[in-house]
Here is the input.
Amino acid sequence: MKFHEILKKSRLPTYEVEFILQELLGVPRHNLYEVDIPPGVYRSFLSLAEKRRQGFPLQYLLGVAYFYGLKLKIVPGVFIPRPETEILVEEAIKRIKKGDTVLDVGSGSGAISLAIASKRECFVDGIDISSLAIAISGENKRDLMEQGVLKGMVSFILGDFLSFGNSGRQRTYDVIVSNPPYIDFRRRDDLPEDVKKEPPVALFAADGGNFFYERLFDIAHSLTKRSGCLLVELPGEKERTSQIDLLARQCGWRKLKVVEDLNSRDRVLVLKKSKKE
Here is the structure.
């Protein structure tokens, strides 16, 4: 059977059919249209496609996610990295020099930490409250080290960032990055079924979704060097951007820029350390 025949029969979007068959066959996307699909692979595809139609995330079904050119292991219970977060990585890399120290708050699968370390000779600490996420990020680190793609040094720390500033750690950071939980609990029922299957601790926050921003801005201020930067992912809503910017200013941060995504939605807030009001 050929790829175009499967595509014609499937009710999944083209990119999802491609993703599944790429992983099942172990071939690049551009080869899918040339190879013959064995019957056993097609049966596996049908099984995965049915689970996908039931709302299971593709990354959980296949056990992998691609982020910033890196192939990462992903399992249920670990947040799935999004393409939009690559904007956060790009903006951070612009501000990271050789030898800088970087903190990734809520590191999850290690996607942001490892992407930064793949481009810069720096020292990255990733912290996450989930022991499963720390285990998976450690596996991803080992895989990428074996492939020789990491330029920087990465350490993953199991812990609660909300008490991180009182942990007695002496290190301060040149750059802090975070894609925090920012969805209002009250909006849970509005989310797609596949998103609902991701870990709630990585998605939802109190105070209309702004709780973690306020705590992050406060704690990060004491953890950054005098000229340090903080970059956070945004929910993509203008009203929320204004609220989050105000919280940042109240905690001693000055806005440098807001970066939009490809859909012209506010996606990354870049902040510079200043004096607290």
About this structure: Residues 119 and 151 are 6 Å apart (CA to CA). The first strand starts at residue 64 and ends at 67. The two ends are 66 Å apart (CA to CA). The longest helix spans residues 131-147.
